[in-house]
Amino acid sequence: MIPRYQTVLFVILLLASVIMGAVLWNQLRRAHERLLRSEDEAPTQAPLVAPTEQATLMVANDADNSVEPRILTLPLPQNPEARARAVLGKLLDLYAAPDAMHPVPGGAGAIAQVFLVPLAEGSGKASPTAPDLAVVNLTSAFAAAHPSGLEAETLTIRSICATLNANLPRVTEVRFLVDGQTRATLAGHADLTRTYLAAATLPTEGARP
C-alpha cells in the first residue's frame, strides 16, 4: 500500500506540472496571436537613423563546435524586439557569408519576427524587471536550407539563444517557431519543441573583436 504522504506529494507535483504547462501554453498563444496581428503590418526593421552601438554576437564555429563572442558596432533601434531582430539578423548574415565558419544560408531574412513575452505575464504579475521569454519566428525557407545534423543545428540554436541573452540580458528563455507554427526540429535533429535557457548557452571565454 502506498503511504499517504507519497500520494499527497505525487498529487502536488502533478498539479504543479499542469500549472506550469498551462502558463507556457498561454505565453506561446499570446506570442502567436501577436504574430497573426502583425501579418498585415510592415515588418519590424532597424531604422536607418538608429544610433550605432556595440553588440555582442555569439558566433558558432564548426571547426571546434564552439560558440565565441564577437563584438561589432551596429545601428540598433531602442525597441527591444526590433533590437533583438537586428542582432540576430546580423548573426545570420555572418553565417551566410562565403567565408563563414558556420555556413548557413538565409541571412537576416531568415528572422521573420522576434517577440518578447514577460515570463510573469501568465500570472498577471508582469513588471519592467521581469525576465522575458523570447519567441523567435524563423522562416520555413531557412529551416529547409539549414544543413542537417545534430551538431550544426545545435550550434545555430545555441548561438541565437546566447546572442539574445548577451544583448538583452532580460531574455532568459527562448522558444522557436517556423512560419508562426511549432515545428518538431530545425532540420531533422535539434528539438524546437522545448524551451531553451539562454544563459546556459553562453561561453565563459572573453570576447574578441
Helix content: 25-40%
Strand order of the largest sheet: 3-4-5-6
Summed up, the helix count is: 4
Main sheet? 4 strands, mixed
Global morphology: globular
The number of domains is 1
Report what the structure shows.
The structure is a single chain. With 209 residues, the chain is α+β, with helices and mostly antiparallel strands. It has one domain. Helices cover 36% and strands 22% of the residues. It contains 4 helices and 6 strands, in the order H-E-E-H-E-E-H-H-E-E. The strands form 2 sheets. The chain has a 4-stranded mixed sheet with strand order 3-4-5-6, sandwiched between helices. A hairpin with a 4-residue loop joins strand 1 and strand 2 (66-75). Helix 2 (80-96) runs antiparallel to helix 4. The N and C termini lie far apart (64 Å).
Provide a short characterization of the protein structure:
With 209 residues, the protein is an alpha+beta fold.
Question: What are the SSEs and their pairings?
Answer:
Layout: H1 4-37, E1 52-61, E2 66-75, H2 80-96, E3 111-118, E4 132-138, H3 140-145, H4 150-167, E5 171-178, E6 196-197
Parallel strand pairs: 4-5
Antiparallel strand pairs: 1-2, 3-4, 5-6
